[in-house]
Design goal:
Layout (H helix, E strand, L loop, with lengths): L1 H20 L3 H21 L6 H7 L21 E3 L3 E3 L10 E3 L4 E8 L5 E4 L1 H5 L1 E8 L2 E3 L6 E4 L3 E9 L3 E6 L9 E6 L1
Parallel strand pairs: 1-4, 2-4, 3-11
Antiparallel strand pairs: 4-9, 5-8, 6-7, 6-9, 10-11
Helix pairs in contact: 2-3
Length: 189
């Protein structure tokens, strides 16, 4: 009985703030005018929050965005940039040039292997600097939590779609190789 009484008192105590917020229409208009005055005073004090005070008065907190990605957001097909493909072939360069990416950009890259030799691309630092959306191999979509390398035993193509995150200079290279042509360099800005 004592526990039941305690629970009822706690529930009543928790309900008090909700009932205290309810006002009559006349009191609501006066409270709204007071809130508008407080918001105007707050806006005068802090010039960094230009749109926040007005949004808070309306009951909406809208985060301003540097980019307008549209209804589908950053992952929309229109926002994706197709990069020049990487090539895995015995004695051929992996990439034709360095890649310059923007942090926050959505990219897609094909990795083509000709099957002339069993080759891999390794780059743990690169894969930790990006968010991998998916890897597609033979129309099979893989959504990994993490990747360290991709190895090709036969000819084929793997397509990686990702968002560049951490700025820096990263490489994907063939393990055990030392030549500059045996790596792809990604500069995320």
């Amino acid at each position: 009985m004592t526990r039941l009484l305690t629970i009822l008192l706690l529930m009543a105590g928790l309900a008090l703030p909700a009932t205290a917020q309810e006002t009559t229409p006349e009191a609501g208009a006066e409270a709204g005018a007071a809130a508008d005055g407080a918001a105007a005073a707050e806006q005068d004090d802090d010039d960094d929050d230009n749109g926040e005070a007005a949004g808070a008065a309306e009951g909406v907190h809208e985060a301003g965005s540097k980019f307008d990605f549209g209804f589908s957001g950053i992952m929309a097909r229109d926002n994706r940039t197709q990069l020049a493909p990487l090539t895995l072939a015995s004695g051929k360069p992996v990439a034709t040039a360095e890649y310059k990416l923007k942090s926050g950009g959505f990219y897609r890259i094909d990795i083509n292997a000709d099957g002339s030799q069993e080759l891999a691309l390794s780059g743990g630092h690169f894969f930790r600097a990006i968010w991998v959306n998916e890897i597609v191999i033979n129309d099979i979509e893989i959504r990994p939590m993490g990747v360290h390398s991709l190895e090709f035993d036969d000819a084929g193509t793997a397509t990686i779609s990702f968002i560049a995150i951490v700025p820096g200079r990263y490489t994907l290279s063939i393990p055990g190789s030392q030549g500059e042509t045996q790596q792809a360099v990604f500069n995320i800005q």
